[in-house]
Structure formats: C-alpha cells, structure tokens
C-alpha cells in the first residue's frame, strides 16, 4: 500500500512465504485506482440523471426523481447479493471482474439511449401525444404521460445498480486482503486511502463529467463513465499477477439462517434426517461448534451496524435538504461582469457554459480529500505513539457526534434564514429555469455544516468499513460488507420516507403555496428532529458497542470455539 512503513509486518510476510510487501503495495494501489475510476463512473451516471430524464427524454419531474431514487436505493440494497455470490461461487476476484463487465454493458446501453438512432433502436419511436378533450376549467389536472423508454432505462439502471453494488461489496474486502500480513495497522490505513480514492472519483465526476453532460451533451457525458469503467477493467486485469486471490470458501449465510430459525421458532424447525436425499454434506472445515460461534458473533455484530442507520439518515441530507436550503440562500455571481449570470446558472451571454448544480457537493468531497491524508499521516501516528489511538467503535461514536453537530448547525441556520423571510427580506435568484426567493444570507454560511458532515464521514464511515471487515467471519466477509452498504441505503430511504411523512397536510414540510420554495415550511424543526434522532441513536450505539467489546474480551469468547474471523 502506498506509504506503508517497513517493519515487523514486512518481515512477517516474508517469513510466512507470502507475496513480497512490494507486490502487496502494488496490488493495493491497483485496487485504489480501480475504486476511484468506478466511483467516477457511478457519480457520473447518478449526478445528472434527473436532468437527463427530465430534460432530454421529457419525463415529468416526479417520474425522473423516482427513477433516480430507485437507482440509488438499489445500488446500496443489492450489495449483499454480490457479496454472497462471491463467497459461495465466484470468489472476490471473479466477482469484481464480472461486475465490471456488466458495468460496461449497462453503461454502454445508457449512452446509446442518448443517441437518437440508438434511442429508436432500443426504445422505438416517440409516441405521439393522444388527443384529449379540452379542459372544462382552467388549471384542471391532466394525467402525466407514460415516460418514454421507461422499460429500457429501468432495466439499464437496475443492471448498473447491481454491478455497482457488487463492486462496492467485493472490491472493499478484496483490497483489504492485499495488505494482510503487512502489520496490525495495515487494514486501518488501507481503508483510509480507500475512502480517499472514492472521493477522488467523486471529484472527477463532479468537475468533469457533470460539466460535459450539462454543456456538451449526454452522449459524450455518458460515454465518459463507460470509458472510466473500461479503464478500471483494464487496470484490474493488468494487475492480476500481483493480486492475492482466494477461492470461494462458501458462505455460512444458510447456516446462520437455519440457526436463527432454530433459535427463534423451535416449533417450526424440523431437524434434517440422515435419510433426507437433499441433505448437503457439511462445508469442509466448518464444524457445528464453529457455526454456532459464527452465528453468535454475527448476532453481536448486526446491532452495531444497525445503529448506524440513523447516522446515514443525517448523512444523506447533504444530497437533499442541505442542497434545498442552499438554493434559498443568496448564491453570489462568480462572473459579475455579465449581468445575465445569476446564482448557479452562470454562463456567458452568448450561450456560454454554465456551472453545474452538482458542484454544490464538492464541499464535502474536498474536506475528505484534505483531512484523510492528514489523519493517516499525522494524527493517527501521533496518537499511536502515545497509545491513545481510539478503537473503530470509539471513532464511529465520535463521527455520530459530528453529524449531530452538522444537522444542529443546519437547523440554526434555517431559523435565521426564516427570520429574514418572515420580515420580507428576500432576494430573487434564477437557478436553471426556476426562480427562488432567497434570504439575503450568503450560501457560504453552509460551510460549517458541510465541514462537520465531512469530518463525521471520516470518523464514522471509514472505521465502520474497517470494523465490518475485521469482525466478520471469514466465510461471510463479502455478505457482511454487503449488509454494511445495504444499511446505508436503508438510512437513505428512511430519510426520504420521513420527508414524505412530514410533507403531508399539517406537516412541517407541507407548503404547497410556495410552488417549489420552502419559505413557508419549517425545515428547521425537521433538522432538529434529525438531531434528536441522532443523539438517541448515538447513546444506543455507545451502550451496544460497550457490550460488544465486553463480550469480545470475555473468557468465554477467548476459550470457546473460535470464529473463522478474517
């Protein structure tokens, strides 16, 4: 791994007869490059998906938003599928390679729909609008037409989500496999740089791909993610000789489900008979005692991961309500010499380029790109020398504190913004095709909440990856990593559900008279509610994590049948 210090870990790897440390670093570096390119492709597809469906294909805004939510949710919720397939049938190397091939095929199909001829080939001709009777009254509702090319695009997006989720769940643990034997802190440092590479890919997508899509067209804009995946696939195959690969060791997911059913519903459980023709012989190397030990370890592990769901609810506000709040703050002109330029729709008078709205997410990304190397090179070694380096669980609790501070700051900023609105102190600004009535507060006042959520990600998400990988049974590492990513998707969907619930009549976010603005909503109360949920979840997490650590240090855990820990 880049920057890994030489020492006992290297000597241990040489004595064990494994690959030399230099090869392991090269393998880890190749994994980081593949991860950066894959994330650039993913964010390149997701960043302007609503704009593509709404602008190029003329889908209704609600239809485009729903498709984007389905894609993002599926890209997280399908993660356990790829992990399980790798554990049982494919192995992590082949799972990643096949997922990248699926990525290429689905990405090429998406790019083809941006070409008129390709769109007609895969979707048919654009249906003509049916002739309907005239409205009996002005403003009468008309049914929204069926979205053009919906079956092809939904199939394409779900295949992309399956490929992205499989890469996400398998490349993480495959990369950590490359640094085993390089010292006790090698995995921690790998996950620091792994997360850093994710944000390098996000910067590439937001700065380059989103700009091309908005200003040069989606054919070239969606061809760039395909090129990124193709380059990632080439790098992955080129680095095959230096990779440490492991065959599929089988997954004990079925054993875990059998034990769970036997424990929870003993009346429904029928022990298998030796004469049962479908009885499968036990997995080589796995004993019933080890199955029980792995099941007990998984039972202790899952509550820790589940209590991170409220953190993900707060985290995904960065891509939803934080952006909505920013649109209602004053966004200054970057090119004030051009009077037509305003807010995020900045361009030269003669149809020049415009700054993509997706660039608003760069604040969080830049924070991680700066702080992760500082933490890895300066803070962690300084704490390690003084034997003060906190455990992964302690870092996760600290990350929850920062996320609480972020959403609390957002709530206070929203209160201040509403004070200006209620005193009729507003400025109108055009962003894209919409006009927003914003408070005369600069959007830069959002910097603290973006900074805090970025710091929380460094302390909660990165140690969470390390914890899930290191504590999972070896035969279930792919599935457990998939569950970790899937739970983050659950947090996102729960956050969306809470917004939908509060948007009902008499809800804090119900303000239809604003016509897209939020000036008559009480989003400050929504932020404070999330802060309360995060505090309660953090307290529960601290209690569960202490029980987990006590159970791990107990004499029974040390002397009993061991789990096949990774």
UniProtKB/TrEMBL annotation:
Presence of the UniProt keyword Membrane in the record: yes
Matches recorded under InterPro entries: MFS_trans_sf, POT_fam
Statement: the UniProt record of this protein carries the keyword Protein transport: yes
Short name of any one Pfam family annotated for the protein: PTR2
Membrane topology term: Multi-pass membrane protein
This protein's UniProt keywords: Membrane, Peptide transport, Protein transport, Symport, Transmembrane, Transmembrane helix, Transport
Compositional bias of kind Basic and acidic residues: 1-13
SUPFAM superfamilies listed in its UniProt record: MFS general substrate transporter
Segments crossing the lipid bilayer: 40-60, 67-86, 92-112, 193-212, 224-244, 298-318, 358-375, 396-413, 481-505, 525-544
Cell compartment(s), UniProt: Membrane
Region span, Disordered: 1-21
Protein name (database record): Solute carrier family 15 member 3
Main location: membrane
Family: Belongs to the major facilitator superfamily. Proton-dependent oligopeptide transporter (POT/PTR) (TC 2.A.17) family.
């Amino acid at each position: 791994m880049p920057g890994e210090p030489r020492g006992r870990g290297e000597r241990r790897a040489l004595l064990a007869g494994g690959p030399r440390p230099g090869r392991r670093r090269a393998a880890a570096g190749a994994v980081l490059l593949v991860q950066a390119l894959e994330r650039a492709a993913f964010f390149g597809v997701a960043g302007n998906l609503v704009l593509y469906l709404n602008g190029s294909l003329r889908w209704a805004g609600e239809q485009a938003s729903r498709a984007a939510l389905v894609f993002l949710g599926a890209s997280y919720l399908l993660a356990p599928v790829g992990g399980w397939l790798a554990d049982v049938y494919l192995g992590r190397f082949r799972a990643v390679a096949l997922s990248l091939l699926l990525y290429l095929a689905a990405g090429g199909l998406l790019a083809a729909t941006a070409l008129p001829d390709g769109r007609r080939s895969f979707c048919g001709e654009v249906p003509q609008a049916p002739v309907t009777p005239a409205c009996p009254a002005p403003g009468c509702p008309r049914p929204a037409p069926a979205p053009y090319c919906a079956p092809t695009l939904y199939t394409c997006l779900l295949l992309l989500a399956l490929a992205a989720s499989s890469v996400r769940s398998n490349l993480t643990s495959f990369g950590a496999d490359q640094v085993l034997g390089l010292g006790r802190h090698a995995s921690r440092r790998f996950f620091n740089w792994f997360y850093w590479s994710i944000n390098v890919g996000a910067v590439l997508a937001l700065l380059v791909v989103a700009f091309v899509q908005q200003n040069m067209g989606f054919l070239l804009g969606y061809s760039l993610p395909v090129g990124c995946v193709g380059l990632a696939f080439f790098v992955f195959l080129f680095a095959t000789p230096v990779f440490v690969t492991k065959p599929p060791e089988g997954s004990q997911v079925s054993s875990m489900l059998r034990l769970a059913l036997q424990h929870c519903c003993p009346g429904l459980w029928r022990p298998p008979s030796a004469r049962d023709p479908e009885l499968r012989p036990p997995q080589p190397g796995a004993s019933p005692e080890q199955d029980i030990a792995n099941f007990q370890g998984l039972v202790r592990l899952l509550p820790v991961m589940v209590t991170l769901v409220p953190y993900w609810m707060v985290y995904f506000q960065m891509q939803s309500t934080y952006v909505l709040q920013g649109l209602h703050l004053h966004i200054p002109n970057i090119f004030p010499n051009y009077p037509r330029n305003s807010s995020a729709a900045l361009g030269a008078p003669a149809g020049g380029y415009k700054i993509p709205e997706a660039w608003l997410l760069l604040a969080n990304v830049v924070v991680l790109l700066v702080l992760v190397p500082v933490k890895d090179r300066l803070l962690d070694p300084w704490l390690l020398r003084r034997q003060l380096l906190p455990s992964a669980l302690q870092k996760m609790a600290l990350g929850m504190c920062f996320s609480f501070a972020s959403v609390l700051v957002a709530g206070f900023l929203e209160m201040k913004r509403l004070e200006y609105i209620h005193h009729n102190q507003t400025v109108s600004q055009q962003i894209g095709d919409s006009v927003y009535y914003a408070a005369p507060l600069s959007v830069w006042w959002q910097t603290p909440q973006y900074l805090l959520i970025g710091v929380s990600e460094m302390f909660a998400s990165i140690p969470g990856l390390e914890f899930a990988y290191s504590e999972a049974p070896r035969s279930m590492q792919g599935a457990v990593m998939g569950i970790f990513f899937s739970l983050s998707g659950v947090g996102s969907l729960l956050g969306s559900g809470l917004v939908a619930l509060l948007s009902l009549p008499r809800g804090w976010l119900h303000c239809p008279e604003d016509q897209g603005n939020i000036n008559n909503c009480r989003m400050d109360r929504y932020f404070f509610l999330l802060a309360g949920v995060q505090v309660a979840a953090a307290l529960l997490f601290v209690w569960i994590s202490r029980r987990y650590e006590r159970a791990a240090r107990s004499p029974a855990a040390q002397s009993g049948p061991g789990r096949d820990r990774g």
